[in-house]
Known about the structure:
Layout: H1 2-18, H2 21-38, E1 41-46, H3 48-55, H4 77-82, E2 85-91, H5 100-120, E3 125-127, H6 131-139, E4 143-150, H7 159-167, E5 170-174, H8 198-210, E6 213-215, H9 221-230, E7 236-237, H10 254-263, E8 266-269, H11 273-276, H12 278-286, H13 297-310, E9 316-318, H14 338-347, H15 352-377, H16 388-391
Parallel strand pairs: 1-2, 2-4, 3-4, 4-5, 5-6, 7-8, 8-9
Helix pairs in contact: 2-14, 2-15, 7-8, 9-10, 13-14
Amino acid sequence: MHRYLSCLALVGAAIVTAGSPSSAQGDFAARARALHKQTPLIDGHNDYPWALRELDPGRDLEKAEISKPVPKLMTDIPRLRQGGVGGQFWSVYTPSAMQGKEAVRATLEQIDIVHRMARRWPETFAMAYTAADVERSFKAGRIGSLVGMEGGHSIDNSLAALRMFYALGARYMTLTHSANLPWADASTDSPVLGGLSKFGEEVVREMNRLGMLVDLSHVSPGSMEDALRVSEAPVIFSHSSAKALCNVPRNVPDNVLQLTAKNGGVVMVTFVPGFISQAVADHDAKKAEGPAPRATLAQVADHIDHIRKVAGIDHIGLGGDFDGITQVVAGLEDVSKYPDLTAELLKRGYSDEDVKKVLGLNVLRVLKQAEAVAARLQKTRQPSTATIEQLDAK
């Protein structure tokens, strides 16, 4: 009898253990890892090229040998592999303080870094110019490497420069960075135009003709709305979150989330603490003393929840902004942590198919649609030779 009761006790203990929270969390983690193997996680924004520039003015890749762990960075190949990254838009950022020929030159130098990365570590990175390239690289076990320009100041008011950047691999351009342009208002500057000028609209049209994604992170709400009105292809927000949850100028208002859904675009939720947590944003704005509050992985998932509610599951992606930030979200400290966010979404009841959309399928769709729009437009539209002087003459 005692032996029988002991057996029952063991069985009961096993049942409790199998159903314990730690076991369930393990199941979510295992499912997350499996999904990352099935679908390329495509991150919208990583600033490793600028981090390298800050480490070494000559931009020597040996100064940040990322084939092995680099503790001073948030990005290296071992952690990219651990994070299940399958596609990456590498930001070829240049500060808004750089203008004119200086900005053009610096952007060329940043694009050169991305190409050299692919040549130096060919077993890990492959240059990608189309959605099919990303898919092919992922199947081959490599990270499809795309170029994302951060700020329209990089083209120095020249559509010809825009076209040449596309030829070198640029597949999105953020219309502004932190300061207004003569043709577009930025989110963190005082409005001047109320959105886009006529030349700014022509920039969007030419990007559509090329097949370059229009990126609306960093731009003012007026510029967002104008670009969404003009663009014939889906747009992206490469690294922005929901303004309803964190009221800062860099985030996306609900009305623009709705317009983005109608456009077919994608908001790639970022991991910048001051764009995720209102407490962090308020602390930063006040320049308060004492320990700063921490943004959390759960709050990032809250932004994804909100965008799903307002715009729909087909309009969400991820844009970490790693190596472009100084503070980090607790639980999302570097590029190895994406599966933890994936597991959180699964824990919240997201289906495998919905998670795959967030990881990369939505962005792949947008790339394919932009390519299709470009193919159509190129049949009837020649490269624009318009100038800012012609279109924006007072």
